[in-house]
Amino acid sequence: xxxxxxxIALALLQFMVFGMAVxxxxxxxxxKAPATTGNEIFERYFRVQxxxxxxxxxxVPAILLFATLHSTFWxxxxxxxxxxxxxxxxxxxxxxxxxxxxxxxLTMLPSAIMVIGVIIITVRAAIAV
Length: 129
Description:
Layout lengths: L1 H28 L10 H30 L2 H24 L5 H28 L1
Helix pairs in contact: 1-2, 1-3, 2-3, 2-4, 3-4
């Protein structure tokens, strides 16, 4: 379970770094808090942060459930793919939002695999009882 916990901690750290990037973009592009609009480049950084928050709501419980019910090894592997996907998403979205597809898919697929896997495992367990 230590690898899964490490992946979760890295995902939280990555989210914190994205938050710092939003703060940097606020200063660079002159978007004063509490505004969340006013400069297209700033808005890209802000959307990455918010989209990552939205993804974390699914990712963290999914990886914990998948690790508990199926495999800590595969949960950590899928979590690592998720982390890389978020990094690619950040890089591509802040440069050209139209290029975000690969990063988005490398985030969405691991989460979907884990959620669907947990559903299958629990349904099978319920039927077996």
